[in-house]
Write a structure and sequence with these properties.
The protein is an alpha/beta fold. The protein has three domains: about 140 residues, Rossmann fold, CATH 3.40.50; about 35 residues; about 190 residues, 3-Layer(aba) Sandwich (Rossmann fold). Helix content is about 30%, strand content about 25%. It is built from twelve helices and 19 strands. Strand 8 and strand 9 form a beta hairpin. Helix 2 runs parallel beside helix 3 and helix 9 runs parallel beside helix 10. The longest helix has 16 residues.
Length: about 400
C-alpha cells in the first residue's frame, strides 16, 4: 500500500510517455518548481517498471498509448506489486470515456486527456492544472490489487462478473460467472442438486436507502464499492455525482456493466426498487417522495436564494421520510456539500459512513463532517461496501409503509 509523502519535502515525480516532445513540455512546465522533483523519465511501461525501484517516486504520470508495454498493462503490474498514486495520460481517450473508467478501475487516481488538456490553454494554465493534480495524487493512498482478481479478456485484464445463488436443498453459496453460465441451471458442488438460474423478475420494495455523494475522484471510489455489493441485499442506492451530465451518463452504463447490481440513470418519477442503484448528475434538485407505499424520485426546481447543495437536498429529504432507514455516504470531492445532509441523517438516527480522506483524491467533502461528528476514520472502500451490505441486509425482511 502506498503511503503519504512527507509534506515538507518535494513530490518526487516519474514521467512515462513515449513522446519526447510531450515529456519536454511537462519538464519545462515543472522544472522551476521547488516543491516538485522530476526523478526520472521513461518511454514505455517496461522502462517505467524498471525505474520505479531506483527512483522511488511519490506520483507517476503514465501515458496509456506506448510501444513495448502500454500504460494500462504497466498500471496493472504496478498496482499488483508496487502501488503508487498514478495519473493516466491519453491522446486517444477523453475524460468520461470507458477507457478512462477502466484506468480508474485498475488503480489510477486521476486522468488527463492530453488533447483537451493542452488545446487552447496557455503554459501557466497547463502548469497550474498539472501541479494541482500531482499534489492531490501525492496525498492519496492506493491499495495493492490482487492478481487473482484479474483475468485476461481481449488483451485487457477485467474482473469476472457473476451472480450469487444459493442451493435450496443444502444452502451452499455459489458464484456463477457469466462466462460459465451455459444453461438454466448449475449443479451444487456440495450436494449435487440442480440450482435454477432463471428466476422470475419481480418488483422488490426498497425498505432501506443509501445516499452516496461524491465529486472529482469519486468515480474511482465507486468502482471499488458498487461492484462489491450483492443485488439480493435489499434496499436501493442513490448516487449523486457532481460532474458533467455526459460523464455521469457514460459512467452509469460502465458501472452497470461491471456490477451485479442493476445500475441505471435516475429519471423524474422513477420508483425505487430493492437491489437497484440509481445514478444522476448534480444538475437538478432531487428529492425522495412517498407514493403508494413505495418511494419515487422527484426532480424539482431549486428555490430562489436556496444555497443547499444537491447532495444535502437528497439526503435531507430521504432522512425525513425514512428516518433510521437511511445511510449517508461521502466519498472524494471538493467543497462541503453533503455535510448538512449527514447532520440531518444523524439527527434522525440514521447511519453515516465517511470514506477515510486518505483514499479520497479531493478531501473537502469528507474532512468537515469526519471531524465534526467524530465518525469512524478507518473505512476504506472495501469496509464501506461491507457496512452498506450489512445495513441493507438487516432490513430486507422487514416491510414498512410510508
Amino acid at each position: 500500500m502506498s503511503q503519504h509523502k512527507h509534506s515538507d519535502s518535494p513530490v518526487k515525480l516519474l514521467i512515462v510517455d513515449d513522446s519526447w516532445v510531450f515529456r519536454s513540455v511537462l519538464r519545462e512546465t515543472l522544472f522551476q518548481r521547488e516543491d516538485i522533483e522530476i526523478v526520472g523519465e521513461a518511454a514505455n511501461g517496461i522502462e517505467a517498471l524498471e525505474m520505479i525501484l531506483k527512483a522511488n517516486p511519490d506520483v507517476i504520470l503514465l501515458d496509456m498509448e506506448m510501444p513495448t508495454m502500454d500504460g494500462m498493462t504497466a498500471l496493472q503490474h504496478l498496482m499488483i506489486h508496487t502501488p503508487i498514486p498514478t495519473i493516466m495520460l491519453s491522446s486517444l481517450s477523453k475524460k468520461g470515456s470507458p477507457r478512462c473508467f477502466d484506468a480508474l478501475k485498475y488503480g489510477a487516481v486521476d486522468f488527463i486527456s492530453k488533447s483537451s488538456f493542452f488545446k487552447g490553454m496557455d503554459v501557466e494554465a497547463n502548469g497550474h492544472l498539472v501541479v494541482e493534480k500531482v499534489f492531490a495524487a501525492a496525498k492519496t493512498v492506493v491499495h495493492p490489487m490482487a492478481a487473482m482478481q484479474l483475468r485476461a479478456e481481449g488483451g485487457v485484464l477485467q474482473e469476472a462478473k457473476g451472480k450469487v445463488v444459493f442451493c435450496e436443498d443444502c444452502g451452499t453459496r455459489h458464484i456463477v460467472h457469466d462466462r460459465e453460465q451455459t444453461g438454466t441451471s448449475v449443479q451444487c458442488d456440495h450436494c449435487g442438486d440442480d440450482i435454477t438460474l432463471v428466476m422470475e423478475d419481480r418488483f422488490k420494495k426498497a425498505n432501506f436507502v443509501t445516499v452516496i455523494g461524491c465529486g472529482e475522484g469519486g468515480y474511482a471510489n465507486l468502482e471499488k464499492i458498487i461492484p462489491d455489493l450483492n443485488p439480493e441485499m435489499g434496499g436501493a442506492l442513490l448516487v449523486l455525482i457532481k460532474d458533467e451530465v455526459e460523464h455521469v451518463e457514460s459512467f452509469a452504463k460502465y458501472l452497470d456493466a461491471i456490477s451485479d447490481l442493476k445500475v441505471s440513470l435516475a429519471q423524474d418519477g422513477l420508483t425505487l426498487e430493492g437491489g437497484g442503484c440509481y445514478v444522476f448528475p448534480d444538475v437538478e434538485q432531487v428529492v425522495l417522495s412517498p407514493y403508494s407505499g413505495n418511494f419515487t424520485l422527484q426532480m424539482v426546481a431549486k428555490p430562489m436564494g436556496d444555497n443547499t447543495g444537491g447532495i444535502d437536498t437528497l439526503m435531507i429529504s430521504a432522512s425525513r421520510i425514512l428516518k433510521n432507514r437511511v445511510a449517508g455516504v461521502l466519498l472524494s470531492g471538493a467543497g462541503d456539500d453533503g455535510n448538512k445532509g449527514m447532520e440531518e441523517i444523524l439527527r434522525n438516527n440514521g447511519t453515516c459512513l465517511i470514506l477515510n480522506p486518505d483514499y479520497c483524491l479531493l478531501k473537502g467533502m469528507t474532512s468537515g463532517v469526519f471531524v465534526k461528528y467524530n465518525l469512524p476514520g478507518d473505512l476504506d472502500e472495501k469496509a464501506v461496501a461491507t457496512r452498506i451490505q450489512e445495513l441493507h441486509s438487516a432490513h430486507q425482511e422487514k416491510v414498512f409503509t410510508a
